[in-house]
Amino acid sequence: MDTVLSGLATGFAVALDPFNLMLVMVGCFVGTLIGALPGLGPINGVAILLPIAYGLGFQPESALILLAGIYYGAEYGGRISSILLNVPGDAGAVMTTLDGNPMARAGQAGRALSLSAVASFAGGTFAVILMSLFAPALAGFAVTFGPADYVALMVFAFASLASLVGKSTVKTLLGATIGLMLATIGIDANTGVPRYTFGLPDILAGIDFLIVVVGLFGMAELLTLVEHQARGTLKSLPVDKSFVSMADLAATKWTIARASVIGFFIGILPGTGASVASAVAYGTEKRISDKDGTFGTGDPRGLAAPEAANNAAAGGSMVPMLTLGIPGSGTTAILLGALLMFNIQPGPMMFAQRPEVAWGLVASMYIGNVALLVINLPLVGLFARMLTIPQHYLTPLIAILAFIGIYTIVGNPHDLFMITGLGVFGWFLRKLDFSLAPIVLGFVLGGLFEDNLRRALSISGGDWSILVSNWKSLLLYALALLVVILPIWLGRRARANAVREAETH
Amino acid sequence: MKIIHLSTALACALGFAVPGFAQSEIDHPECVAPANPGGGFDLTCRVAQTGLAPHVSSPVQVNFMPGGIGAVAFNQFNTNRADDGSAIVAFSTGSLLNIITGKYGAFDEKSVRWVGTAGADFGAVVVRADSDYQSLKDVMDDLSADPQSVVVGAGGSVGSQDWMKGALLMREAGGTPMQMRYVAFDGGGDAIAALLGGSIKVYTGDVGEMVPYLDSGDMRVLAVLSPERLEAPFDQLPTAKEQGYDVEWTILRGFYMGGKTSDEDYQKWVDAFEAAYATEEFAQIQHDKGLLPLNMSGEELSASIEGRMQTLREIATEAGLIQ
User: What keywords are annotated for this sequence in UniProt (chain A) (predicted)?
Assistant: First the structure.
């Protein structure tokens, strides 16, 4: 405890240095803007800014604080276009569209934006506190999570999502299958054999997650808007001055707490990040608290859950990075690269050898979270007014931003064709009344599921019993079973009670 | 990527005063890292950027061209930019292996020009600190007795350079690479996590990435796959060779240019590298970036690549990666 306190003291001394404080603010603000732009998420935000931070000759701790601010800010900002435009700003914000956008369509954009800012703050702060207290122990736990346990985690994720979306179960399953199929494109991680690449070098490494998100969601949404406009059936969205109320917070407090815990623990696992965390948190919350079937129609709890989770995951993924030198997500992998550029070896010795960098970063996260809340709440009204921009300006503007965003990730024109193609595909699927979220989730979870299943089987030499060989896997399978059975059982009991009551009356 | 241009230019302008000896006049020199920022290729380009700064007339800009594990850049510099005399592209031994296994398409090592190296890294056989394996011999004995008894893992797929290190050990132990129980992870970080978590028993990684773990005592390096002992801080680590196993794995990091560049442009770059190799500063930059010195350029590098490709092809054929 003493080391934590003295460490934090060192850290705050670094982070409260006026220059670093300014960098946290700048990072958070720029990050929010980057996150809000469709196609630009934390990964490319940090990747774009890394060479600049390096080029400006900052001290390593200053540069890292700036980049972490951008990472955090982008996780915050990702929700803005999800809510307002139904276009996820980044991968972690896909689930935010499900209830966030219906709220905005119902004229509650301000309420949705402010509630999600509070949920993000709660999730992020929860993660930082746990991280500063227990980072080494947590990292030790995270590495014991073997491939077999990841398989169980994915089964749990699939189970909690099975209820997810869409009116038709068949279409939901078909959607998930399409996602799984897209995930198989590229060099097979196990054998190195290219699959479904048709000799195109551009997709040898697989399709980037962001391209699927921006293409299927963003472009398809834009095409739908254009279609409505051409037909003259486009309704302008009502904008009011709604804001989050105490009643909202009271109604979502347990949702936020649960989602923060889920998000944080998924975040600390290397290889799973904000997108898996927000999906699992949303699915679990729907299973637990969606008694009236309001999830997906603008339920504040359905908005708070993924937002608290993705910010908690962003904090959680810093744990293995700082304590073990193992990235917990794509973005932290880039931050690790940044440390190497500054000649700092990330890893188990970093807290001992470079306390000013490690603790400075931790302290900046406390400050960053507060800064983000302070920056975001007053801006809610401004962001909400975005909806008053006439659609015939807004649609092309979003399209341009999305194209720029995608082009900056990789600088490969091929990706622009990809998002266009996926957009047309997504638009057709929407015409056929498919929900797009299962596709994206099939894509994320499917890739992780396959890789880890095959790793587990390589480890055991083909013996399937490895999948149920330890308590962590078994616990997750039990939970998976529970989330499937519990709602059915609760439903039956409620019906039985209703019948009994009807009889006694 | 204008911002990046500007910032890197700024970095050089701020960081390096231009001393007064002969410089190569290269118009807008550029180093292409065929990956996202923050990875090994980025690091390779940074060595060129800082290391060549005193020896070229204007600062080297680093640009990124990710896509298809480097295949997009390799194809670009064999087609559209084959005659681009102001750009070099970072490569590693992994890229050479990709050329061999056909992942880079129709072009091969003879269709580009090899310019110079940034440095080298070497393979390492790593176990967890509390592992029963005390020496490389323990691992090799188990591999000989029952190849399936040792779970080996690393950060690349079957056929990648990380796998190759395991395959070479397996071959030396008297088995065939396909008998090896190999687990492919997504990058070295995940593989290290799996080693620490006990999912895998042996990790075939690189020496460079072991620096932060040498002091922490989480892992032990059983053998370094270098031709001879390395310098400090790695001088305590025994090589596989001195333990009686003829296994060597050098990860070369360097640069190539398009095949249709003029001799004049090519020579300018080679001269710049030659000038840099002669300085103390370049050695320091290599050290800071976690690379070990292995300096070759021009003809020497081309010949070395040719030799390496031949060896790699033999190994790849034996391992069943190519026919």
Answer: Membrane, Transmembrane, Transmembrane helix
Contact B196 A324 (CB under 8 A): yes
pLDDT of residue A446: 87
- Selection from B191, A85, A412, A356 nearest residue A96 by Cα: A85
Q: How many CB atoms lie within 10 A of CB A144?
A: 15
CA–CA separation, B149 vs B139, rounded Å? 10
Helix (H/G/I), strand (E/B), else coil: A11: helix
Q: How far apart are CA A179 and CA A383, in angstroms?
A: 32
DSSP B73-139: HHHHTTTTTTT-TTEEEEEEHHHHHHHHTTTTTT--GGGEEEEEEEEEEEEEEEEETT-S--SHHHH
Compute the radius of gyration of chain A from its Cα atoms.
22
Which pLDDT score is estimated for B265? 93
Kindly indicate the confidence band of residue A151, based on its pLDDT and cuts at 50, 70 and 90: very high
Q: How many domains does chain A have?
A: 1
Best B98, B158, B203, B211 residue to mutate vs chain A (most A CBs within 10 Å): B158
CB contact (8 A) between residue A48 and residue B194: no
Task: Give the mean pLDDT of chain A.
Answer: 84
- Quick one: how far is CA B243 from the chain centroid? 24
One-letter amino acid identity for A100? Answer: G
Q: Across the interface, do A192 and B157 touch by the CB < 8 Å criterion?
A: yes
Nearest partner of B311 among B160, B107, B97, B156, judged by Cα: B97
Cis peptide before A147 (omega within 30 of 0): no
Number of other residues whose CB lies within 10 A of the CB of residue A476: 20
Integer Cα distance of B55 and B20 in angstroms? 9
B102/A contact by beta carbon, under 8 A = no
Q: Can you give the residue range of the structural domain that contains A384? A: 2-504
Question: Which of A70-74, A118-122, B245-249 is predicted with the least confidence, judged by mean pLDDT?
Answer: A70-74
Summarised one tens digit per residue, pLDDT across range B10-40 is 444 444 444 445 688 888 899 998 877 767 7
Token pair of A333 as six digits: 């992998």
Average pLDDT over residues A110-135: 92
Above pLDDT 70, what percent of chain A?
A: 95
| Between A348 and B263, the higher pLDDT residue | B263
Interchain CB contact of A52 with B (< 8 Å): yes
Query: In chain B, what is the straight-line distance between the N-terminal and C-terminal CA atoms, in Å?
Result: 41
Rounded to the nearest integer, the mean pLDDT of chain B is 86
| Alpha carbon distance A317, A334 (integer Å) | 12
d(CA B265, CA B199): 50
**What confidence category does residue A312 fall into, taking pLDDT thresholds of 50, 70 and 90?**
very high
Contact B46, B82 (CB under 8 A): no
By Cβ distance, the residue of B15, B38, B197 closest to A146 is B197
Average pLDDT estimate for A185-214: 82
Q: What is the mean pLDDT of residues A256-278?
A: 89
Name the residue among A86, A280, A256, A206 with its Cα closest to residue A451: A206
B3: confidence class by pLDDT, cuts 50, 70, 90: very low
Residue B4 CA, distance from chain mean position: 24
Judged by CB atoms within 8 Å, which residues 259-298 of A form the interface with B?
270-271
Element at B172 (helix H, strand E) = helix B161-172
Contact B237, B57 (CB under 8 A): no
Q: Is pLDDT of A486 > 70?
A: yes
Neighbour-count burial of B314, counting CB atoms closer than 10 A to its CB (0-12 exposed, 13-18 middle, 19+ buried) = exposed
